[in-house]
Design brief:
By secondary structure, the chain is an alpha/beta fold. It has three domains: 126 residues, D-Maltodextrin-Binding Protein, domain 2 (3-Layer(aba) Sandwich), CATH 3.40.190.10; 88 residues, 3-Layer(aba) Sandwich (D-Maltodextrin-Binding Protein, domain 2); 68 residues, Alpha-Beta Plaits. It is built from eight helices and 15 strands. The strands form three sheets. It has a six-stranded mixed beta sheet with strand order 2-3-1-4-11-5. A five-stranded mixed beta sheet has the order 8-7-9-6-10. A hairpin with a 2-residue loop joins β13 and β14. The chain is flat and about 75 Å long. The two termini are 39 Å apart. Bound molecules: adenosine-5'-triphosphate, 1-O-pyrophosphono-5-O-phosphono-alpha-D-ribofuranose (PRP) and magnesium ion.
């Protein structure tokens, strides 16, 4: 049996979210030795146990209070919520934070050869999906009735296989749709990975650990979004240079030894610098422009 005093976190074992979930926890300083076959991993340096499961099971594990936290795509979370509500349950959980990975959209797609004039043209059609409740919620709002063809994977195969007239599946780059002769016609849900917490009382020590993790996650995500920018700039054009740097705090300005006409500027920016901006900075007389990643941040 697992020790109930340790914080239990569920994450996807292998799939689109697993590498990012593992990296996030590692960057928060949790030392976990994840071996391929091991479904429960114990952190060495904190009272944390990691359950590695199919992503579909994560919302239920949190809603049933089996684990304290879970990292899951909003698409799967929302589908589980709607499924349980349809069964008369009132599932509870908290979303602690939206994360910076797992971005995708749930979209309707049809054959590139079919005409699409709006949701109405799907009336009485058969739609293949792994997300029947999210699909029904969307098409109910549009007053479109349809038949669901449930597929748990490779949904894109359905139209050509004659199983369905359209599909409703996850899209990121659109490459899978294109490779299967399909065209995205409607985005019905935009998703990212989220960190969720079970409802109910949390022992003080566990809550403190969750609070500490949240501060660290904030620091990790903030750092990933930010860049450290350094350059040499002409002293008389500082304001023009600063105007080109949206998202940057007021810079630190340092003298350059033996050069009165130029200064060194250091600043943290919440955005990266695009090549176009760097070219404009150069045109203003800036040089030695460096854009560096930041590893950790605490405000
Ligand atoms: N192409 C994509 N780009 C980015 N994120 C995606 C993409 N496809 C899916 N996701 C996100 O990652 C989650 C997991 O996707 P994945 O394809 O690994 O699920 P799965 O095959 O159901 O895995 P499991 O074996 O755990 O059930 C999705 O629910 C979604 O939130
Ligand atoms: O728009 P794209 O970038 O092509 O991504 C979309 C594909 O990614 C996901 O599947 P995944 O590759 O994770 O495989 P799966 O069928 O095992 O879920 C999703 O179900 C789509 O099929
Ligand atoms: Mg799954």
């Amino acid at each position: 049996m697992l020790d109930n005093t340790r914080l239990r976190i569920a994450m996807q074992k292998s799939g689109r979210l697993s590498d990012d979930s593992r990296e996030l926890l590692a960057r928060c300083g949790i030392k976990i030795n994840l071996q391929q076959q091991r479904l429960i991993a114990f952190a060495e340096n904190m009272p944390i146990d990691i359950l590695r499961v199919r992503d579909d099971d994560i919302p239920g594990l949190v809603m049933d209070g089996v684990v304290d936290l879970g990292i899951i795509g909003e698409n799967v979370l929302e589908e589980e919520l709607l499924t349980r509500r349809a069964q008369g349950e009132d599932p509870r959980y908290f979303t602690l934070r939206r994360l910076d990975f797992g971005g995708c959209r749930l979209s309707l797609a049809m054959s590139v050869d079919d005409e699409y004039t709006g949701p109405q043209c799907l009336h009485n059609s058969r739609i293949a999906t792994s997300y029947p409740h999210l699909l029904k919620k969307y098409l109910d709002q549009k007053n479109v009735s349809f038949k669901t063809c449930m597929l748990n994977g490779s949904v894109e195969v359905a139209p050509r296989a004659g199983l369905a007239d359209a599909i409703c599946d996850l899209v990121s780059t659109g490459a899978t749709l294109e490779a299967n002769g399909l065209r995205e016609v409607e985005v019905i849900y935009r998703s990212k990975a989220v960190l969720i917490q079970r409802d109910g009382e949390m022992p003080g020590a566990k809550q403190e650990l969750i609070d500490k993790l949240m501060t660290r996650i904030q620091g990790v995500i903030k750092a990933r979004e930010s860049k450290y920018i350094m350059m040499h700039a002409p002293s008389d054009r500082l304001e023009e240079v600063i105007k080109l740097l949206p998202g940057a705090e007021r810079p630190t300005v340092l003298p350059l030894a033996g050069d009165q006409s130029r200064v060194a500027m250091h600043m943290v920016s919440s955005e990266t610098l695009f090549w176009e901006t760097m070219e404009k900075l150069k045109a203003l007389g800036a040089s030695s422009i460096l854009v560096l990643p930041i590893e950790k941040m605490m405000e």
